[in-house]
Amino acid sequence: MNKFLKYFAIGILALLIYFGITTYPKLDLISGFSAKSIASGHFIDNRTIKIIEQGDNDIPLVSLANNVINDAGKFATSSVYGIKERKAIYREGLGATLINKDFDVNKSYEIPKRTKITINLPFPYGNSEPNDTVFSNIDYKKLNAAVAKAFDKEGEKSKRTRAVLVIYKDKIIAEKYDTNFNKNSRLLGWSMTKSITATLFGILQKQGEFDINKPAPIVEWQKDERAIIRTSDLLHMNSGLEWEEKYDKICDATKMLFQAEDMGKVQLEKKAQFPPNLHWNYSSGTTNLLSKILRNQFKTHQDYLDFWYTDLLDKIGMNSALIETDMAGNFVGSSYGWATARDWGKFGLLYLHKGNWNGEQLFDESWAKYVATPTNTSKGRYGAHFWLNAGGYFPDVPREMYYCSGFQGQMIAIFPSKDLVIVHLGLSEKFDFNGFLNGVVGSFKK
Fold first, then answer.
1. Euclidean distance between CA atoms 282 and 435, whole angstroms
2. Distance between CA atoms of 199 and 279, rounded to whole angstroms?
3. What confidence score (pLDDT) does residue 4 get?
4. What is the percent of the chain with per-residue pLDDT over 70, rounded to a whole number?
5. Distances in Å between the alpha carbon of 398 and those of 130, 226, 422?
6. Alpha-carbon Rg for the chain in angstroms
7. 183 with 339: CB under 8 angstroms?
8. With bands split at pLDDT 50, 70 and 90, how would you rate the model's confidence at 402?
9. Rounded distance, CA 361 to CA 353, Å?
């Protein structure tokens, strides 16, 4: 018996050591992800804690978290095994923010001023329901079959699609939602938000307020080799700066999203590993640095907050859209954009029409070409904060397609010559986009 207890104790000790080495350091990130996800999903989209835990938080390790929502205080807390508790607070207009223990929840804050004008026009240029239009060149049986195939059948949990929207010639020709979601559900775009952040530079450039081809206006870089990095290099993700982006480990990206107070500073403080325009490296830190650069273009923080909405999101009727902020008041332009499927579709239409929104040119036509032109060393996969199919990554999909892409299968696909935008929102990294997109495009008669 004593021998058994000895080996049992050794086994327990070994497990504790293994846990301490492999898992304990991640607990802060696990509980941080969970608290932020719970607060955002509940307060932005009115989801129950059960729906969030079984959907958004059904991720290895994240599912270990114990979560509590405080509706009166508008915050959520999460912990793992009763330790490493993290808190995310919700503020109207700013969304949910994961905070550190020393964050002053009582300090005053500014919120974006929104202009939501009711326009008596059908989608996409007004608030009325879209007109029913039947196109003779579309095989609707094939189209609906392709859309239906994107969703799990009852009892399945592999495709995990939440919403699909297909827009042709400004008309919605297919729209479908999973259980618990509908046309009013606000869904997280994750890295599709990067494309929104980039677009703001296109707008500023058209307004004559910014030149992306000049060195990035960052004071801290002016006396070292980083001084030659252009804003365009940042938009292309080939600045040459150090960065590691992997979500299954503690790295630059996870520490930024779940620990940093000022997310824009994380990339700003990184050293140069390569000369600009020679080494493509995907970096959420770069996008949050761009958000910080945007903030510095305005005289006040209020002007910065307003600009994202007055000059882009509310301008094109993305009235459901919400970009969340970090603790320092910067928009988390890399990851935290929310909108309905229809409003995400409007963003795709803005690019389909090369910056023209119902007669008003928000950015120059050349900007749409700029973002869809392959970045040096990306092998045809990336443009300027947009992903591309120029290299045939999706072999059965037209090479002209370029798209916004986000974690767990978020996509806005733009097909310029086909006058087509396809939106997909879901929860699976393994979703078959090649088959799905091919099925939708294949429903158009030749």
1. 25
2. 23
3. 56
4. 94
5. 27, 38, 13
6. 23
7. no
8. very high
9. 9
Q: What is the DSSP code (8-state) at residue 279? A: -
Is residue 326 within 8 A of residue 261, CB to CB? The reply is yes
Query: Helix crossing, 192-206 with 301-308: angle to 10°?
Result: 110
Beta-carbon contacts of residue 3 (< 8 Å; ≥ 6 apart)? none
DSSP 62: G
pLDDT at 393 over 70: yes
List, for residues 164-221, the tens digit of each pLDDT value.
Answer: 999 999 999 999 999 999 999 999 999 999 999 999 999 999 999 999 999 999 999 9
Q: β-strands 410-415, 420-426: how paired?
A: antiparallel
Q: Can you read off the two tokens belonging to residue 294?
A: 């945007």
Helix (H) or strand (E) holding 66: strand 66-70
H or E segment to which residue 70 belongs:
strand 66-70
Residue 249 pLDDT: 83
DSSP labels for 280-319? Answer: ----HHHHHHHHHHHHTTSSSHHHHHHHHIIIIITTTT-T
The length of the chain is 446
Q: In what order do the strands lie in the sheet with 187-188?
A: 187-188, 337-339, 322-323
| DSSP letter (8 states) at residue 338 | E
Task: Locate 349 and state its tokens.
Answer: 């239409």
Backbone angles phi, psi at 212, to 5 degrees: -70, -15
Are the C-beta atoms of residues 180 and 51 closer than 8 Å to each other?
yes
For residue 356, list its beta bridge partners: 361
Give, as one character, the DSSP assignment of residue 345: H
> Count of CB atoms within 10 A of residue 146's CB?
23
Instruction: Report the C-alpha gap between 148 and 140 in whole angstroms.
Output: 12
The pLDDT tens digits of the residues spanning 272-314 come to 999 999 999 999 999 999 999 999 999 999 999 999 999 999 9
Residues near 108 by beta carbon (within 8 Å), at least 6 away in sequence: none
Burial class (CB in 10 A: 0-12, 13-18, 19+), 165: buried
Cα distances (Å, whole numbers) of residue 360 to 86, 130, 211, 350, 357: 45, 21, 21, 11, 5
- Cα–Cα distance between 177 and 233 in angstroms, integer? 38
Share of the chain above pLDDT 90, in %: 89
Q: Where are the beta strands (DSSP E) in 161-273?
A: 161-168, 171-177, 187-188
